[in-house]
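Here is an idea for our session: we take a single protein and study its fold together. To get us started, please write out a protein record for me. Once you have written the record down, we can walk along the chain together.
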Amino acid sequence: MEGKTDVRMFTNIHTRINSKYRISTIFRKYGNINFTSWAWETIVWRKDDDNERIIEQETSNNLSEVLEKHESFFEKYQS
């Protein structure tokens, strides 16, 4: 894969908060010819009409932090 970044998704947690918001927490491997890295990424998606866009995003290597962030995003956007 010379010249390209290899991004693979291995584990994920998806929570649909309501018809407008959802959360994705994903454990990913990022790598290219120069490096390989693993990280948890938590993303809040907002749906407007037929489009979805990222409105918040956090990255961490600590699973406890990731689960706390997933929960805090859920509480923030459920109302």
Remarks:
- The CA atoms of residues 2 and 33 lie 6 Å apart.
